[in-house]
């Protein structure tokens, strides 16, 4: 058997993605409208945020600008799932109609092959919003700036995004077992909206749940401590890279198990 | 009998809904999760405001409003735009146009089954639980009757907007973009996620002139106001009636003018 | 020539949900579910030699697709053994995929939005086909079919025929040892069918590719397959040469006659008169399938001529289609 290592997969990935972007560009109107839709979503998110918090200097000990930073952090950390794993949204349909079977005939990793097919460019708009928000709130917060802080931020952003990716993979994979998995995926997708609040607003029971059962606190809250309050970083924050990697691996296993169990309905 | 023809769509819709039992459970879990977040978030907001009443609403008022808004959302939220968009992309719309029933009605009645199931499975239980838990915070009187009228009009306005937006797909075929824009605007400007009372002044007045507040804000304010003046009642219902008729006419005319444009995919 | 595929006592069972009828039934389904076991493939044993074209036939729902899915590694057999070129497909799906090409009915496996040539290039990279072999294959394709007009066309803009053609070419691109074709000619017009049959035949001949073909079109079978395997309700009914099969029915001949008036009505009347034989009618002819062990065709014809004014007649050996139909209906003794 021919060897297929990281180099092979990287090369293939960029080739497939390049083709996908090329073909998307041929639907110009769709691209523009989707981008506008994405901008709308983000503006509406900001408006809601502003309406809710503009009158209050702080919520549960979190200042307005700290909350804004959390918000920006959550936007950036969900960008990878939006851009790279968007094909998860079609999984349900493909499994239902039986079209999914075509992914099973190729001599490459099934999960890779499936996810590589779509790159969602409009997610980049969200990235811009997120970075802008973080930069703005950072400048308003009196926390200084150093290359080391930036490095920490990037590392924690990447690992935080793994959690959102893991949640979405696992949610999408439910369609291999249950018929209408749209609700599961939709639910997981909404977690991103919940991730932007400081977990201290919840009662201890729900703090526990959102940390260990549905780990949305790892999407923005714990990792952003490292930058926002470097003197009082809880242990869980340092764990978040590990949690990210472990969750990603678990979700990958679930997804693959589902795909292999898949029996190609619709003959 | 004509109604019988329509009711058979309703029945088929109910059966279809039942088959997705897993999605029911998940929908309920999703709603609970959302409401938990809403509860703690607003609790934190009220705690940091330092006063019992914010923008004329107590914490309890706000919570009841948002819980019922969520329950209402669950049966008002349709995937009409998606369906019309997909019908157009697949070319199925041509077959639907040949059916002995107007397309607009056909789609509406196909969804009527899910209105019924969602009403009994989400709105009614929520309503009963809320009114039991809050010991009469929801007035139970003639307002229920007005509320019914108001909800029916809300359904109609919501459907007309969806159908109008779905019609746009005839021109652009960008379903995702169009749908997300609609969803974001409706959710924010209808008072589904934040009560209108919390919006800052110029925005609030503008919202009263738009059709969206007739979908969530109007029925909920009728339901929660135990002793409305005749004037308030007439203004609210009158505004709704105006938008029901206006949106019906607009969406119908737009559809009629657009159908001529149909360029069917494939062949 | 060695055996490329070996299947021993393979069985595949599925758990299927029994849905209850009506509104009440669907309410019940919410709370309790009732499953039944369906045996899609039942104790099938066969082997296929390198370079063969085998027709894999059976009515809808007979278990054909299930068998193919097991051979491609998508499904795991419930019991029994499958070896494809020495691999157990289910355990080494990726490795097995190197050796096989698959065309599955009308589901295109190509990238929908891409021009065919771009799909080919991606496949070249995925299968790591050496550039030299890739170019040779393209040359071969160019010599066999006129691919220039479709090479730069996005798959989504192709006609069904062009898409099928593209899918078949894509399946052969990495020069696999085995190609599975599931109903490759379904829904195509006559000339496209002929084109595709020639293509499959040529590719099989030149590359010595083993081809396993499921179809409902006996034209495909006659044009391509020397051997057929018939399966029904999961059980294998027949596995041998077509000629051998026709031998079973060698005593059968089809007598075709033409009469004035409504042929359907005549056919019904004749069916009553000739209870031993099957009578059918199409637009032009009334066909009587005569078993010569029971009566000579010439006698049947003579008998008919006495009663009816026969305008025209033809005599035919039994067609593959009729043989298969008889097997579906009666089985092989």
Question: Which helices and strands, and how do they pair?
Answer:
The complex is a heterotrimer of chains A (267), B (267) and C (333).
Chain A: H1 6-25, H2 28-53, E1 58-59, E2 62-63, H3 64-77, H4 79-84, H5 88-97, H6 110-116, H7 123-140, H8 147-173, H9 182-194, H10 204-213, H11 221-228, H12 235-261
Antiparallel strand pairs in A: 1-2
Chain B: H1 2-18, H2 21-49, E1 53-54, E2 57-58, H3 59-76, H4 80-90, H5 93-98, H6 103-133, H7 142-172, H8 175-189, H9 201-208, H10 217-224, H11 230-259
Antiparallel strand pairs in B: 1-2
Helix pairs in contact in B: 1-6, 2-3, 3-6, 4-7, 4-8, 7-8, 7-10, 7-11
Chain C: E1 3-18, H1 22-31, E2 34-49, E3 53-57, H2 64-71, E4 79-84, H3 93-99, E5 100-104, H4 116-126, H5 131-144, H6 148-151, H7 160-172, E6 178-182, H8 190-207, E7 210-214, H9 218-224, E8 227-232, E9 235-241, H10 242-248, E10 252-258, H11 263-273, E11 278-281, E12 286-291, H12 297-307, E13 312-317, H13 320-330
Parallel strand pairs in C: 3-7, 3-8, 5-6, 6-7
Antiparallel strand pairs in C: 1-2, 1-4, 8-9, 10-12, 10-13, 11-12
Helix pairs in contact in C: 7-8
Provide the spatial order of strands within the biggest beta sheet of chain B.
1-2
Structural class given helices, strands, pairing of chain A? Answer: mainly alpha
* Number of continuous helical runs of chain B: 11
C-alpha Rg of chain A, in Å?
Answer: 20 Å
Low-confidence stretches of chain A: none
pLDDT averaged over residues of chain B: 84
Keyword list:
B: 267 residues, 11 helices, C: 333 residues, alpha/beta, Rossmann fold, 2 domains, six-stranded mixed beta sheet, four-stranded antiparallel beta sheet, 13 strands, globular
Describe the structure.
Chain A has 267 residues and is mostly helical. Chain A has helices at 6-25, 28-53, 64-77, 79-84, 88-97, 110-116, 123-140, 147-173, 182-194, 204-213, 221-228, 235-261; strands at 58-59, 62-63. A two-stranded antiparallel sheet of chain A has the order 1-2. The mean pLDDT of chain A is 87. Chain B has one domain. Helices cover 76% and strands 1% of the residues of chain B. Chain B contains 11 helices and 2 strands, in the order H-H-E-E-H-H-H-H-H-H-H-H-H. Chain B has a two-stranded antiparallel sheet. Chain C is an alpha/beta fold. Chain C has 2 domains: 3-246, 3-Layer(aba) Sandwich (Rossmann fold), CATH 3.40.50; 251-317, Alpha-Beta Plaits (2-Layer Sandwich), CATH 3.30.70.260. Helix content of chain C is 40%, strand content 28%.
């Amino acid at each position: 058997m021919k060897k297929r290592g990281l180099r092979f997969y990287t090369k293939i990935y960029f080739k497939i993605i390049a083709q996908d972007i090329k073909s998307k560009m041929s639907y110009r109107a769709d691209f523009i409208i989707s981008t506008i839709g994405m901008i709308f979503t983000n503006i509406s998110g900001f408006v809601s945020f502003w309406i809710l918090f503009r009158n209050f200097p702080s919520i549960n000990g979190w200042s307005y600008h700290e909350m804004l930073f959390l918000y920006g952090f959550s936007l950036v950390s969900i960008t990878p799932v939006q851009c790279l794993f968007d094909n998860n949204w079609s999984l349900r349909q493909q499994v239902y109609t039986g079209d999914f079977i075509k992914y099973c005939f190729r001599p490459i990793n099934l999960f890779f092959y499936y996810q590589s097919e779509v790159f969602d460019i409009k997610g980049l708009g969200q990235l811009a919003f997120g970075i802008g928000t973080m930069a703005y709130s950072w400048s308003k917060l009196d926390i200084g700036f150093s290359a080391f802080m930036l490095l920490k931020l990037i590392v924690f952003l990447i690992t935080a995004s793994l959690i959102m990716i893991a949640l979405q993979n696992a949610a999408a994979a439910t369609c291999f077992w249950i018929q209408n998995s749209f609700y599961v995926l939709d639910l997981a997708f909404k977690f991103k909206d919940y991730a932007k609040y400081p977990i201290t607003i919840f009662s201890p029971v729900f703090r526990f749940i959102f940390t260990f059962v549905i780990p949305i606190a790892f999407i923005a809250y714990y990792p952003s401590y490292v930058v926002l309050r470097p003197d009082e970083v809880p242990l869980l924050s340092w764990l978040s890279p590990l949690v990210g990697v472990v969750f990603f691996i678990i979700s990958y296993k679930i997804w693959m198990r589902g795909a292999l169990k898949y029996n190609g309905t619709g003959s | 009998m004509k109604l019988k023809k329509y009711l058979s769509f309703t029945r088929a819709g109910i059966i279809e809904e039942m088959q997705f039992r897993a999605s029911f459970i998940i929908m309920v879990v999703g709603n609970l999760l959302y409401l938990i977040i809403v509860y703690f978030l607003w609790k934190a907001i009220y705690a940091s405001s330092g006063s019992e009443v914010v923008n004329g609403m107590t914490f309890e008022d706000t919570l009841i409003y948002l819980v019922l808004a969520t329950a209402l959302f669950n049966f008002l939220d349709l995937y009409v735009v998606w369906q019309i968009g997909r019908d157009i992309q697949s070319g199925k719309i041509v077959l639907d146009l040949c059916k002995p029933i107007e397309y607009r009605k056909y789609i509406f009645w196909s969804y009527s089954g899910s209105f019924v199931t969602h009403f009994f499975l989400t709105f009614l239980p929520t309503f009963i639980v809320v009114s039991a838990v809050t010991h009469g915070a929801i007035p139970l009187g003639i307002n229920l009757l007005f509320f019914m009228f108001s909800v029916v009009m809300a359904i109609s306005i919501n459907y007309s907007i969806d159908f109008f937006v779905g019609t746009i797909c005839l021109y652009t075929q960008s379903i995702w973009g169009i749908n997300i824009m609609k969803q974001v605007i409706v959710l924010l400007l209808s008072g589904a996620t934040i009560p209108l009372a919390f919006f800052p002044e110029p925005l609030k007045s503008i919202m009263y002139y738009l059709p969206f507040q007739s979908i969530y804000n109007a029925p909920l304010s009728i339901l929660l106001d135990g002793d409305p003046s005749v004037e308030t009642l007439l203004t609210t219902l009158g505004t709704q009636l105006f938008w029901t008729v206006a949106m019906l006419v607009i969406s119908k005319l737009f559809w009629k003018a657009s159908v001529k444009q149909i360029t069917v995919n494939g062949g | 020539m060695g055996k490329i595929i070996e299947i021993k006592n393979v069985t595949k069972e599925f758990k299927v949900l029994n849905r209850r009828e009506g509104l009440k039934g669907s309410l019940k389904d919410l709370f309790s579910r009732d499953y039944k076991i369906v045996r899609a493939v039942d104790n099938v044993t066969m082997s296929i030699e390198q370079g063969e074209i085998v027709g894999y036939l059976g009515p809808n729902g007979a278990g054909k697709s299930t068998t193919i899915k097991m051979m491609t590694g998508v499904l795991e057999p419930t019991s029994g053994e499958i070896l494809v070129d020495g691999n157990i497909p289910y355990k080494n799906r990726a490795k097995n995929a190197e050796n096989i090409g698959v065309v599955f009915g009308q589901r295109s496996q190509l990238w929908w939005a891409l021009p065919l040539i771009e799909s080919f290039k991606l496949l070249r990279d995925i299968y790591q086909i050496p550039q030299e072999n890739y170019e040779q294959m393209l040359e071969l394709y160019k010599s066999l079919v006129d691919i220039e007009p479709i090479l730069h066309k996005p798959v989504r803009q192709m006609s069904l025929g062009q898409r099928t053609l593209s899918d078949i070419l894509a399946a052969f691109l990495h020069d696999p040892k085995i190609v599975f074709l599931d109903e490759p000619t379904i829904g195509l017009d006559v000339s496209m069918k002929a084109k595709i049959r020639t293509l499959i035949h040529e590719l099989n001949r030149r590359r010595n590719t083993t081809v396993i073909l499921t179809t409902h079109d006996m034209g495909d079978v006659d044009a391509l397959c020397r051997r057929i395997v018939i399966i029904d309700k999961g059980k294998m009914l027949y596995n041998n040469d077509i000629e051998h099969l026709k031998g079973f029915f060698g005593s059968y001949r089809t007598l075709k006659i033409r009469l004035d008036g409504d042929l359907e009505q005549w056919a019904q009347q004749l069916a009553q008169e000739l209870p031993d034989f099957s009578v059918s009618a199409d637009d032009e002819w009334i066909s009587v399938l005569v078993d010569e062990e029971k009566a000579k065709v010439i006698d049947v014809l003579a008998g008919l001529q006495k009663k009816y004014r026969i305008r025209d007649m033809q005599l035919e050996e039994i067609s593959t289609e009729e043989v298969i139909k008889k097997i579906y209906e009666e089985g092989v003794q």
